[in-house]
Amino acid sequence: MNVIKIIVGSTRPQRFGVQVGKWVAGVAQEFAASSGGSVKFEVVDLAEVNLPLLDEPFPAGMNKYQNDHTRKWSATVAGADGFVVITPEYNHSTSAALKNALDYVFYEWNYKPVGFVSYGSGAGGSRAVEHLRGIVGELKMYDLRESVMIPNYWGQLGGDGAFTPLDEQTAGLKAMLEQLAYWTDAMKPAREKLAAK
What we know:
The chain is of the alpha/beta class and 197 residues long. It has one domain (2-195): Rossmann fold (3-Layer(aba) Sandwich), CATH 3.40.50.360. Helices cover 43% and strands 20% of the residues. The protein has a 5-stranded parallel β-sheet with strand order 2-1-3-4-5, sandwiched between helices. Helix 1 crosses helix 6. It is globular and about 50 Å long. The model has no long low-confidence stretch (mean pLDDT 96).
């Protein structure tokens, strides 16, 4: 069974990303049930992971982790075959917490597919995703064209503050998950060969 981890990339108090994470996880669980058990989804909340600002004395590519929190994060990332990354857009880019988490390890990300769900104001987080595509490329990840954007997300909050996705956002998420599950499975043998070199 392949494991796809859904990373909630904001750590701010009262962040909207938690609602997006719950929505993505719900749609993902329905997808997993319909796939005959070939894929499993797990949510990873960076606020709970609580990594300090990168404090390793050696670059991640040296694979010489000194801290327990780094080793734990390494195991979390290594235990995934693919990722959904949920990102806010802060000042035309992604969150510092997400960039920090990506920078902590290197080999654990390699040769794995990733899809993006973004949110923000008018651009819907697209500028954050634009930056992330360059970052994950350097980490030897494979980003999917399919993505989901949630522009002006506050317009989709009800009186109780709950997020209601648009039909086209849900359809886009399902299409992304389908591609992600396919490429996660297709790339696994290649990744094992490449990692062994």
